[in-house]
Design goal:
With about 425 residues, the chain is mostly beta strands. It has a domain of about 200 residues. Helices cover about 5% and strands about 50% of the residues. The strands form nine sheets. It has a four-stranded antiparallel sheet with strand order 1-34-33-32, with no helix packed on it. Strands 2-3-4-5 form a four-stranded antiparallel sheet, with no helix packed on it. A four-stranded antiparallel sheet has the order 6-7-8-9, with no helix packed on it. The longest helix has 16 residues.
Length: about 425
């Protein structure tokens, strides 16, 4: 695994090159849609951020997964009132949020050196209700609605945890995975069998069966690189299993542990989304840092488009770094425009925001784009922008698209030919 500080350095270098060749927009022909900035809501978001959790009309900004420091904070933003409701200082960098039925949040935080933490925050105030440190440097957790409990793993052990106080109610397994101190741990639950769990420890993927108060391994699969996300799916056509996003690799492993298909690309893959949902999946969409947007079906057949703009040129010489690097991932919503059926996908680069249509037949088309900051004002040096710009993915709220930038959140309206 590339260590976080090294990965951050690479990304900052790429941002700097991109910033040297800024462009207002990149389309070479008129697009059928228009993004128009309406207003900026000033709010101090955690810098360098890439992770957010959208809950109804609220958004929890978690900060960065790549630039870990001993103390981080989160911000909860009310999209109706257009203001920050609260923030909270945390023991580390928040990498996951679980929204509990009562409104509170469970957070997982990690540090460059030190323990991972599992915390519960009050949903009204952001106050820390409890904080449980774990011995390993990383952690993952999931909520079981049917059991009203949580499953938590550090990649080596698996616990049943009480959400009320963070107490470990039972040790379900130990001695799991390939590393005693993994850098990457991901936990997911099968959409077909609630007793089946998927757990990744660095580049090792395990299937576990919960029975009689214990979790027993049923199969394992090795990835070429560390795994960053697991998305269990059941496709319309009957195929079921788990999609694993790894660095430079994407896998679909079926429920029996057999590799169904594999996509090899380059760099970071993130934010896999099942459309319309994980139980009846037709398409899976995910983003790649340098390669852009991918759309795949049950057989791995796909549409793929890099973000527009071509590559960076230095002294007139093209280098293998896109002008528009995909940041923070992708957000999706059903399209209400009759002329553009299917789904709308939103993503961003450092400077621009893009909206695509995914048609019912799987065709991917760019339909609108805009500079993130239409006013064009530069804030700070190129290095400062690369380090501090909150690069969260755009998110859809009611009739507008919201995009973060250095001094807050810009609200865009999307107008499409034949309807908005």
């Amino acid at each position: 695994m590339i260590k976080p500080f090294l990965l951050s350095t690479i990304i900052i270098f790429a941002f700097t090159l991109v910033s040297c060749t800024r462009a207002e927009t990149t389309a070479t022909q008129p697009l059928p849609g228009m993004l128009q900035a309406q207003q900026i809501h000033e709010v101090a978001l955690p810098g360098g951020g890439q992770i957010l959790s959208q809950v109804g009309e609220g958004v929890l900004f978690l900060g960065s997964q790549l630039q870990r420091t001993p103390t981080r904070y989160v911000v909860f933003y009310d999209a109706v009132q257009k203001r920050q409701l609260w923030d909270a200082t945390l023991p580390g960098s928040a990498i996951k949020a679980i929204h509990l039925p009562g409104g509170d949040f469970i957070l997982v935080t990690i540090q460059e050196k030190g323990n991972a933490h599992l915390l519960r925050l009050d949903g009204e105030t952001g106050a820390i209700l409890w904080d449980v440190p774990y011995a390993n440097p990383t952690l993952d957790a999931l909520w079981r609605e049917d059991m009203k409990d949580m499953l938590v793993s550090d990649g080596v052990s698996l616990w049943q945890v009480a959400p009320r106080d963070g107490r470990q109610m039972a040790l379900l397994a130990t001695g799991l995975g390939q590393s005693l101190h993994p850098d990457s741990v991901v936990l997911a639950r099968s959409v077909d069998d609630p007793q089946t769990l998927y757990l990744s420890n660095n580049s090792m993927l395990l299937a576990l069966n919960l029975k009689g108060g214990q979790a027993m391994e049923t199969w394992r699969f090795s990835s070429a690189k560390f795994i960053a996300q697991l998305l269990p799916v059941h496709f319309f056509s009957g195929e079921q299993g788990v999609i694993a996003l790894a660095h430079s690799n994407v896998y679909f492993v079926d429920a029996a542990g057999k590799l169904a298909w594999h996509i090899k690309n380059k760099d970071i893959n993130y934010t896999a989304i099942a459309l319309p949902n994980a139980q009846e999946t037709e398409w899976v969409v995910f983003g790649n840092f340098v390669k852009g947007i991918y759309v795949v079906d049950a057989h791995g057949q796909r549409a793929h488009q890099p973000l527009p703009g071509g590559n960076v040129r230095i002294l007139g010489i093209p280098v293998p770094i896109p002008k528009n690097i995909l940041l923070g991932g992708i957000r999706a919503t059903s399209s209400a425009a009759g002329a553009f059926p299917g789904y709308l996908l939103a993503t961003r680069s450092l400077d621009n925001v893009f909206v695509y249509q995914l048609s019912p037949t799987g065709k991917l088309s760019l339909i609108a784009e805009s500079p993130v900051n239409p006013g064009g004002e530069e804030m700070g040096t190129l290095i400062q922008q690369a380090q501090s710009n909150p690069n969260y993915p755009p998110f859809f709220l009611d009739d507008y698209l919201a995009v973060s930038q250095a001094n807050g959140i810009t609200q865009f309206t999307l107008t499409l030919e034949g309807g908005s």
